[in-house]
Amino acid sequence: MTTLTADLKKTTKKATKKVPVRGMMDNVMEQFNSAADQINLHPNIRKILSITNNEILVNFPVKMDNGEVEIFTGYRVQHNNALGPYKGGLRYHPTVDLDAARALAMWMTWKTSLAGLPYGGGKGGIKLDPSKYSEGELERITRRFTFALADNIGPEHDIPAPDVNTNSQTMAWIADTYMSTRPPAERNANQHIVTGKPDGSGGLEGRDRATGYGVYLTIKFWAEKNDVNLEGKKFIVQGFGNVGYWAALFLERDGAKLVAVQDAYGCIQNQKGIAVEELSKYTKINEGSIADFPDAKPVNKDKFFGLDCDIVIPAALGNQITKENASKIKGKLIAEGANGPTNVEGEKILLDKGITIIPDILCNSGGVVGSYFEWLQNRNGEIWQLDEVMAKLDKKMKESFNKVYDYSKNENIDMRTAAFCIAIERIEKAYIQRGIFP
Ligand SMILES: NC(=O)C1=CN([C@@H]2O[C@H](COP(=O)(O)OP(=O)(O)OC[C@H]3O[C@@H](n4cnc5c(N)ncnc54)[C@H](OP(=O)(O)O)[C@@H]3O)[C@@H](O)[C@H]2O)C=CC1
Ligand SMILES: O=C(O)CCC(=O)C(=O)O
């Protein structure tokens, strides 16, 4: 008996000895600090940028279809607004918590700064699995969340947008609820409270594809700089949602070949090529998932990042490329459609192998640039045409890409550190110009 208890204690001790799990905040802070060291950032500004300005947590009740009330927890973290109103998406996912919202808000600050936008960074969402709720429940959850947040967001203060598991419908509910909290004469002047709305309700033509198109463009610009022809190049995509689908479609149109896809429910491969539109049509009759697509073979999800390809596009969640799988990656280019998909340990392995990473704050910035266009459109009472939007997006993405690429070559540093340096230097300049720091 004594032996058994002792054994049990030993096993319990072993099992509970925690291997520290790197959170998203560890990741973004290490990225920030190495860029801050590189540019010798003023210590006072380093202190300010290392913390978030505001963290809003709301618990709110919602009546479910069965008549019972469920309590939800929502977050909005406002990291920094030195350059303009807080800007960033809302995520509905079980992994949403303060750590994730803080990290994602910080990435938004660097992203908007790098893109040269008049915005700061914010992010938030609700901790929930949307697949467990009906459309009507999701609408009520979204409206109650908006109501709970209403005093802390605003079209000139903090402007949410879509992210994982939120879309133009979610944004329409938010806009409608927020506008109804304003006095009648001001309602229409608040349409730019969110971006990513449906195009019949103040949304921008092209915002749906803006992030994925931007991902494609950064790959194309990199290929042009390096004399690489995209024709026939094989790529794999993790996440076949808004970002993954559009990025894959534009790459396919340029002659590249989608050979593997992973989503939350499955992982498939066909080295001869997977037709993007066919796969998209299939997901619509398969509860949104790519699993069991007839023109591809299922693959174990742990093998995904090691599959044969030239380009890897993580377009799902954070912390996907780590020291556990980075050394298996065969592609020579990683284009980060997702936010924070590569952690610092994974990145070190990739860089040592000579793999190029187009960092998230550059690669997926087409989304927030599109959002900026939508915000301007609403503010000015205009309606922009799709070709105009795409041409402006192209120009903005090219400027950002060239800035990062040239900085990284001139300073002999990787593209992520270069992107962070440019972003932080712009914010540093704003603080210095205001005369806060001698
Ligand atoms: N939407 C935007 O404009 C922008 C988005 N981003 C970033 O891009 C990424 C994707 O966002 P978005 O496309 O909008 O989100 P969506 O909700 O449209 O799509 C998310 C995709 O990721 C998949 N996914 C979720 N969990 C996993 C998992 N554990 N393993 C593999 N795949 C998974 C989902 O699969 P399933 O459908 O099976 O659940 C789905 O295909 C996020 O990191 C987001 O922050 C960045 C900039 C802008
Ligand atoms: O469009 C936006 O405002 C932000 C989108 C977003 O959340 C992101 O870029 O990560």
Automatic annotation (TrEMBL):
<dbReference type="InterPro" id="IPR033524">
    <property type="entry name" value="Glu/Leu/Phe/Val_DH_AS"/>
</dbReference>
<dbReference type="InterPro" id="IPR033922">
    <property type="entry name" value="NAD_bind_Glu_DH"/>
</dbReference>
<dbReference type="InterPro" id="IPR046346">
    <property type="entry name" value="Aminoacid_DH-like_N_sf"/>
</dbReference>
<dbReference type="Pfam" id="PF00208">
    <property type="entry name" value="ELFV_dehydrog"/>
</dbReference>
<dbReference type="InterPro" id="IPR006095">
    <property type="entry name" value="Glu/Leu/Phe/Val/Trp_DH"/>
</dbReference>
<comment type="similarity">
    <text>Belongs to the Glu/Leu/Phe/Val dehydrogenases family.</text>
</comment>
<dbReference type="InterPro" id="IPR036291">
    <property type="entry name" value="NAD(P)-bd_dom_sf"/>
</dbReference>
<feature type="domain" description="Glutamate/phenylalanine/leucine/valine/L-tryptophan dehydrogenase C-terminal">
    <location>
        <begin position="204"/>
        <end position="435"/>
    </location>
</feature>
<dbReference type="InterPro" id="IPR006097">
    <property type="entry name" value="Glu/Leu/Phe/Val/Trp_DH_dimer"/>
</dbReference>
<dbReference type="InterPro" id="IPR014362">
    <property type="entry name" value="Glu_DH"/>
</dbReference>
<keyword id="KW-0560">Oxidoreductase</keyword>
<protein>
    <recommendedName>
        <fullName>Glutamate dehydrogenase</fullName>
    </recommendedName>
</protein>
<dbReference type="InterPro" id="IPR006096">
    <property type="entry name" value="Glu/Leu/Phe/Val/Trp_DH_C"/>
</dbReference>
<dbReference type="Pfam" id="PF02812">
    <property type="entry name" value="ELFV_dehydrog_N"/>
</dbReference>
